[in-house]
């Protein structure tokens, strides 16, 4: 069966014996068209099943009212909260979203960037994959004057606009808290140190140890993918260490929760035997026992700030090129998993 063709403004014009220009204006509720005529046009459009072609209309105006969002994964409470913040601001401003994810692959990220470019997005909000080392695939956006804002996973050396937290300060604060609880052998479980977020948290960890005259050991830095399996592997490595660590800073709450559970299954008391700090303030941090001390990374705020800056740029209210880095506040939330002093 042949698909039914789309109804056009010319079909409405023929039915009502009006010009196509009058029908077009009437459908847009233009005040120049008589109120009764507008009503007739809109009723005829409903009757015939007319659908406005936003895409064609916007192309004529050289814009599509769509914003591309590129994330490194979708199975993440943090990313979900960022997307929630982006959607809130863009919906209020009348923009649709096209969301793509790289599955932590530079190759897929580059393909997504090209795909969104060809879909003619008005702007782009992006967080980089683990193995992305170059921003070459964003060059077409720059050449066409299409604004791009990066968040969380960014290239710090570039002059692009970035929305991040102070990962160095967060790493320092988390580690210093463990030191203040009497921990002297602190393991860091983190991800690829080529990525800014993990490199800076690692730097904060290292400097907090140094400032407290605790020697830094590469053997206590476990580079993982921060998955569920990572939590199990980290726990097993901790159990095999001699002497065993008395503190753990794990830069992802889900991995931290799995690690804690695995340690408990092997007879380790938390926080008495090992104090644990996570990162992100995901929902799971309040569900595990003991409740997990964590760094609050306000994803909704990050999403809202990135989207608001992009929308304001597109509307000509501000220029993102005048702002290189926007720092969003984070906070250490102390719960029982790290309170070694109270567990004595």
Automatic annotation (TrEMBL):
Q: Which Pfam families match?
A: LacI, Peripla_BP_3
Keyword DNA-binding annotated: yes
Q: Which residues form a coiled coil?
A: none
Q: Which UniProt keywords apply?
A: DNA-binding, Transcription, Transcription regulation
Identify the domain of life. Bacteria
Under the heading SMART domains, the entry gives: HTH_LACI
> Signal peptide span per the entry?
none
SUPFAM superfamilies from the entry? lambda repressor-like DNA-binding domains (SSF47413), Periplasmic binding protein-like I (SSF53822)
The chain positions of domain HTH lacI-type read: 7-61
Q: Which PROSITE patterns match?
A: HTH_LACI_2
Keyword Transcription regulation assigned: yes
- Protein name in the entry: LacI family transcriptional regulator
Q: What organism does the UniProt record list as the source?
A: Terrimonas ginsenosidimutans
């Amino acid at each position: 069966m042949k698909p039914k063709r789309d109804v056009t403004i010319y079909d409405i014009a023929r039915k009502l014996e009006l010009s196509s220009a009058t029908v077009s204006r009437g459908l847009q509720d233009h005040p120049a068209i008589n109120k009764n005529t507008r009503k007739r046009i809109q009723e005829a459009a409903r009757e015939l099943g007319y659908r406005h072609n936003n895409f064609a209309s916007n192309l004529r105006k050289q814009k599509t009212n769509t914003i591309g969002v590129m994330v490194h994964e979708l199975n993440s409470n943090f990313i979900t909260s960022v997307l929630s913040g982006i959607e809130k601001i863009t919906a209020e401003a009348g923009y649709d979203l096209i969301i793509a994810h790289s599955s932590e692959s530079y190759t897929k990220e580059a393909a997504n960037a090209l795909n969104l470019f060809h879909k003619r997005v008005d702007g782009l909000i992006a967080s980089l994959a683990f193995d992305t080392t170059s921003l070459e695939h964003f060059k077409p956006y720059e050449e066409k004057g299409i604004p791009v804002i990066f968040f969380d996973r960014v290239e710090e050396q570039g002059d692009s606009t970035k929305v991040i937290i102070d990962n160095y300060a967060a790493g320092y604060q988390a580690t210093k808290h463990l030191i203040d609880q009497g921990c002297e052998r602190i393991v860091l479980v983190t991800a690829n140190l080529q990525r800014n977020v993990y490199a800076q948290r690692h730097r904060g960890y290292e400097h907090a140890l140094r400032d407290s005259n605790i020697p830094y050991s590469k053997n206590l830095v476990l580079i993982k993918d921060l998955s569920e399996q990572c939590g199990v592997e980290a726990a097993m490595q901790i159990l095999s260490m001699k002497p065993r660590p008395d503190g753990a800073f794990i830069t992802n709450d889900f991995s931290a929760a799995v690690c804690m559970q695995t340690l408990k299954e092997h007879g380790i008391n938390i926080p008495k035997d090992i104090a644990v700090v996570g990162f992100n303030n995901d929902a799971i941090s309040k569900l595990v026992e003991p409740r997990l001390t964590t760094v609050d990374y306000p994803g909704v705020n990050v999403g809202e700030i990135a989207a608001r800056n992009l929308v304001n740029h597109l509307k000509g209210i501000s220029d993102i090129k005048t702002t290189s880095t926007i720092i969003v506040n984070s906070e250490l939330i102390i719960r029982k998993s790290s309170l070694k002093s109270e567990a004595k």
